[in-house]
Design brief:
mainly beta, 345 residues
Length: 345
């Protein structure tokens, strides 16, 4: 007769193997991307984009906010900023029913639904990215104007913004700033916030309490020049996150431009060393992928990983600056001269 204990152990063993096989089978292997042009214009330049329910909103370099409604195949302008300054919008955020856009350069102008709610006059002012924790509280970050990162915060739904004093922030290192390349320098989960800096020093600025207090962690990503470092960061969970960048002047260099953390950003490891992709300006986890599937995008192509970023597949040479996912198959990408819908299969 079969020993009952051995028989039960055998059944459990078979069950575990079956579960592992099913888990392995659930990891997709996307092999191509269909690109559907939505807005083509040689004057169009977009580095900031957000998904708003079933709609898509973009902010352009020509001070315009454009919207694509569900079912529409094109974008329409919903408002533009008609001022002498004509801000080049590189940051965009949506909180409740309000759209926030922020330009680079001085004067730094932050708009809520087309009206200025924050203005900063400083020749060094250069804001790079903006996000909200909830409908009332939001943050924007920029290059240092003194000896710390520029951090402005709202607690009243974006009606007023206040810049944090350097006395309450860590000190920046020489040549440390951020890149306004894709509006993805900030990643937020709950109250936790990660900010990726770049340049001669490329570090993670971390806050566990919605920007009230901060600490800084070093990273092993390529750095040391004004054009090096992290250009984009994304966290799938409070522990798992990825950052990508490199040096846009050496776009094929891939030895140390992709890094991964499994402990909430405190420590990082270089992944995909000496493998594609090289420089990329934006990286995003695919929703619902358990942190396994990623897409990286830049002016020289689109790449995909299904093992957490350790290995990548080049899907297209079509260049974009930034990408946002609507679901696990459909995304929108924008760049120089165009906005497109991307379908991954």
């Amino acid at each position: 007769m079969i020993n009952k204990n051995k028989f039960y152990f055998f059944l459990i063993f078979i069950g575990l193997i079956s579960c592992q096989q099913k888990e392995h089978e659930m990891v997709r292997n996307i092999s191509n991307v269909e690109i559907i042009p939505l807005d083509i214009d040689t004057l169009l330049n977009v580095r900031a984009m957000e998904i708003w329910g079933d709609s898509v909103v973009v902010a352009t370099s020509l001070s315009k906010i454009k919207l694509k409604l569900p079912g529409s195949l094109s974008f329409r302008e919903i408002f533009s900023v008609d001022t002498m300054n004509k801000p080049n919008f590189r940051s965009l955020a949506i909180a409740g029913k309000s759209i926030f856009s922020l330009g680079i350069g001085s004067p730094a102008l932050l708009y809520k639904n087309g009206k200025v709610v924050y203005r900063e006059e400083n020749e060094k002012a250069f804001y790079d990215s903006m996000e909200f924790w909830n409908e009332k509280e939001g943050i924007a970050i920029g290059d240092p104007t003194e000896d710390c990162l520029s951090i402005i915060i709202t607690r009243d739904g974006g009606d007023t913004w206040h810049k944090m004093a350097c006395s309450n922030l860590p000190k920046s290192k020489e040549g440390e700033g951020a890149f306004a390349a894709s509006d993805t320098n900030i990643s937020i989960l709950g109250d936790k916030t990660w900010v990726a800096t770049g340049g001669k020093s490329s570090r993670i600025w971390y806050s566990a309490d919605k920007g009230n207090t901060w600490e800084v962690y070093d990273t092993p990503i390529v750095q040391g020049k004004e054009t090096t470092g992290m250009y984009s960061i994304d966290f799938y969970s409070e522990n798992k996150g990825i950052a990508i960048g490199g040096d846009y002047t050496l776009p094929n260099e891939n030895s140390s431009n992709k890094i991964l953390t499994e402990d909430g950003g405190r420590t990082w490891e270089i992944i995909g060393k000496d493998t594609l992709p090289g420089y990329r300006s934006c990286v995003k986890y695919i929703p619902g992928s358990n942190g396994k599937e990623l897409v990286a995008i830049g002016f020289n192509g689109i790449d995909y990983s299904n093992n957490g970023g350790y290995a990548w597949k080049h899907l297209s040479d079509e260049g974009y600056y930034t990408i946002r996912f609507q679901n696990d198959t459909v995304a929108y990408a924008a760049g120089n001269g165009r906005i497109s819908k991307l379908i991954f299969r």
